[in-house]
Amino acid sequence: MGIIEKGLELLYPSNIYCISCGSIIDKTRPYALCDECVDKLHWLGQKTCAKCGKILQEDYRHDLCWDCRTYGHAFDRGYTCVQYGLYERGILLDYKYRKKSYIGRKLGDILYDRMLLEEESFDLIVPVPMHGKKQARRGFNQAAVMAARLAQRMGVPCAAGLLIRCRQTLPMKGLGAFERQQNLEGAFAVAPENRYKIAGRKLLLVDDIYTTGSTMDGCGKVLKEKGAKEIHVLSFACGANIAPKQ
Ligand SMILES: [Zn+2]
Ligand SMILES: [Zn+2]
After folding, report:
1. How far is the CA of 87 from the centre of ligand 1 (A)?
2. For a 10 Å CB count at each end of the chain, is N or C smaller?
3. d(CA 67, ligand 2 centre) in Å
4. What is the pLDDT along the chain (246 residues), one digit of tens a residue?
5. Rounded to 5 degrees, what angle do the CA atoms 198, 162, 78 make?
């Protein structure tokens, strides 16, 4: 190998690691996933909730998932890429807690391909914000890295500082409708200097995981109050459509 090729090899390595199992793969593999891991992920099925985009079982008899039928949402339409399972969890844990921020760019590519299936265009992409302290500990906001990559590929501006998370919220699991609403009350705000950016605009909110949709609702509510015209939400992974035990 000549010195120039060696230099190029360093700049553009021909092999990279699979973001799920870590095995060495050819860099041309889509999303930096090996073939085995591509098969293991729970990609979007045929049937999804007509409102939030959550994956529904083929024999499920409603068009809307349990959450959408029970609570409704502060956003207009939702999309997701995979159902949250063991392998999806592994990728997200590596990404967030082992600080492998490059995984976020690969997830952004997955989000981009997902949106190619929809005939939608947006004025602005907005990542779900993290609380300042939490972000300082982690070093990055996982939703913002994914959103930035998606925005770059869609050619749409990304407004990372537009929404602010004013306080931490409790996990939504096990909370009733009223408690969920209370948990999000005042949790998000629009930075005053950014208000002019959203009036009359169609926004795409981005997060890594979608479970009940409450976080997206918290964001959607303040964005609509400040004049956003339409809000769609996009996540990498969504939880299963399960009615909680009463
Ligand atoms: Zn793999
Ligand atoms: Zn739904």
Report:
1. 10
2. C
3. 6
4. 456 555 555 555 556 889 999 888 888 888 999 999 999 999 987 789 999 999 888 889 999 998 899 888 999 999 999 999 999 999 999 998 888 888 999 999 999 999 999 999 999 999 999 988 888 888 899 999 999 999 999 999 999 989 999 988 777 777 777 787 788 888 999 988 888 889 999 999 999 999 888 899 999 999 999 999 999 999 999 988 877 654
5. 70
The neighbourhood of ligand 1, an ion, using CB within 5 A, equals: 18, 20-21, 34, 37
Distance 30 CA to ligand 1 centre (A): 11
> Under 8 Å CB-to-CB from 169, ≥6 apart: which residues?
183, 184, 187, 215, 218
Q: What is the CATH number of domain 42-238?
A: 3.40.50.2020
Q: Give the separation between CA 232 and CA 142, rounded to whole angstroms.
A: 19
Tell me which ligand sits closest to the C-alpha of residue 79.
2
Ligand nearest to the CA of 91: 1
Q: For residue 74, report the distance from its CA to the centre of ligand 1, in Å.
A: 37
